[in-house]
Amino acid sequence: MRLPPDLPNERLDRSRYELVVEERFTGSALDTSRWVPHYLPQWSSPERSAARYSLGASDSSSPGLTLRIDHDQEAWSPEFNGELRVSNLQTGARSGEVGSGSGQHPFREGLLVRTAQLDQRLWLPHYGLIEVNLQPSTHPRALTALWLIGFEHVPEQSGELCVVEIFGRDIRPDGSALVGVGIHPFGDPTLRDDFAQVETAGDVRAGRTFSVEWMPGAARFYIDDELVAEADQSPAYPLQLMLNLYELPDETERDANDYPLTAAVSFVREWHRIGR
Asked: Does residue 41 lie in a domain region?
């Protein structure tokens, strides 16, 4: 991964692209032709994997989506993932039969499908420009992220593009932060792990735009249109979006006064290269 100061002083040029999806999360209900409001539901129950969230009014200028973790929220999969809590929207889902080990993003050995999923290929980009404008949670146990992961109908098609991940513990009092970007191969033998945390000036709490230019054999990562990292590889197959807020377990007691944990999303966009 190339990082500053070895990168060219370039800014994102959207004139090379045409906008094909602009999701602003407004209206009375989530668009379920695009989003599954559960986190990896095959490894859990519908009640535990369900996202907690609210949408903005169509005539409001406030962020459209607020992901939320409440004090009474249960761990999403205590059988396989301990006390981790998640509110997540994703744009695809699939699994094998109950009791099988076939499912998306097998994050550890020994996973078994607990709730079988039909194939849902709702929004799976394949190259282009993907971006999100978000305000992360600042709680020390929080992680706010947009990842693109393989649908995994073919198990080896499991690579990940991390557009942005921000741990609350990495946000400083002035709002500057470390921001994670990069590529994880998981089960894709054609990829290697290539990930970095980059410094960002300015206040991430006010909402920043995080973008990835995803091209055959390359990826470029931007914060507010400024190039911050560049990779010489990329997944070569469609990827689904994973937009999420985590509460990571630690040794401290969960204080009801800290809740809800929230992260706000103004928009998610997909652009295609003109003439592709």
From this structure: no
